[in-house]
Amino acid sequence: MKLRVLLSISVITTTLFLLSCEKTENDAVDLQSLPLPQLSSSLESYDDIDDLSRNPFFRGIPGGQQIDITDAGATLGRVLFYDPRLSINNRISCGSCHSQKHGFADPRQFSEGFAGKITSRNAMSIANPSANNHFFWDSRVSRIEELALEPVRNHIEMGMEKMDDLVLKLNNTSYYSELFHNAFSSEEISPEKIASALSQFMCSLISVDSRMDQGLNNGFANFSELERLGQELFFGQKAMCGSCHSSGNFSAPDFPGGGYSQPDVQGTANIGLQLVYTDNGKHEGQFKIPSLRNIGVSAPYMHDGRFKTLEEVVEHYDNGIALHKNLDSKFRTNDGARKLNLSAIEKLALVAFLNTLTDEKFLNDERYSDPFKY
Ligand code: HEC
Ligand code: HEC
Asked: CB within 6 Å of ligand 1 — which residues?
């Protein structure tokens, strides 16, 4: 008898113990405790967002993402972008890894997913994706609608493998029927509509008001001497940065025949970070030539977040390039990897120029901010 009581007590305690373990492991967030997003009408207008084609830097560039953005579509996309319900255990939203004040990049070297596992790459910034045809560090996706659900399904990032489960969860969330109705004239929720709304929000993330953009309109009268020296170096033959980081986004030119020496590399290059890569990117150490917009606030840098500061990045290009077998021809000389031989002032100048790409208006635009007030 005594034994049976003891046994059942131990069964109960083990069960309780297991239950409590399970709870901490999943760390499920109580859906009811997540408040409604606050969308005051003044924040819903994406109408006055500068059309990229109005910026001289982007004019005349064909290609890019051809998607129609409506206020209601981008508004729904904003809510989805910041809603942790998009992860299997309601812990992680897109905004957990793409932080507005860091140019929608992650300030951590690697990001933490829904179950505490870390991503193998650094989460990059997002700005003007509509002028981009290659996404992710290995340029594996070309349409933004295709990209949008990938992080949701990803087993490390959000773990929502079955789209039906996501649709069910959003159907059970009070505010979505109205948001979907406003955006698509029907309350019905589908993975395609989720992808479309997320894409509309992302394509409304337009950054065209950095000091560099302002300089375009005033002959760079707003630049200091150091910044002007940096600009000359960036676009000149000595540092050659602009030969890869080009076009309106300071990334690979995303238009047909956009100056690629090898059309098959899809906007990627090898910059000799090391001799042997553990992550091979698109192909043998070739990675996407990323946009440098808001680069001053989107540290750490490179696909593996190896550099903490822009000074370290410039130091790499100046004298740290490894003679990888795929090293881009721009970094090769007859006898090895090129050294830029920049003076101390020139290095400072390059960093100063890179910092002119920070767009404070973009980083503080409420329409891009988290609508959930905790
Ligand atoms: C757990 C962290 C995490 C979450 C959550 C996350 N991302 Fe990302 N994101 C990353 C990482 C890491 C990369 C780079 C991955 C790669 O290159 O393979 C990335 C890359 C991207 C890019 C590519 C940008 C470019 O210029 O190539 C976009 C766009 C993006 N994410 C959008 C989203 C959206 C939309 C969501 C939500 C549905 C989301 N992300 C959720 C970590 C995250
Ligand atoms: C041959 C093309 C090429 C040239 C020239 C080039 N870059 Fe890059 N840049 C890249 C590629 C590719 C990456 C990403 C590499 C990786 O992560 O493996 C990169 C990454 C960067 C990053 C980090 C971006 C981020 O979001 O993490 C910065 C900053 C940068 N480059 C600045 C410069 C500067 C400054 C110069 C001139 C001194 C320069 N680049 C010249 C191709 C180039």
From this structure: 86, 92, 94, 96-98, 111, 113, 119, 121, 123-124, 126, 129, 132, 135-137, 147-148, 151-152, 157-158, 198, 202
Residue at 297: amino acid letter: V
Tokens of 60: 């005349």
Tokens representing residue 274 in the block: 């090391």
* Residue 139 near residue 251, CB atoms below 8 Å: no
Distance from CA of residue 77 to its chain's centroid?
15
Residue to mutate (ligand 1; options 65, 76, 108, 126; most atoms within 8 A of CB): 126
pLDDT tens figures, 203-254: 889 898 999 999 988 999 999 999 999 999 999 999 999 989 988 889 886 6
- For 26-57, b/e burial (b = at least 16 CB within 10 A) is eeeeeeeeeeebebeeebbebeebeebeebeb
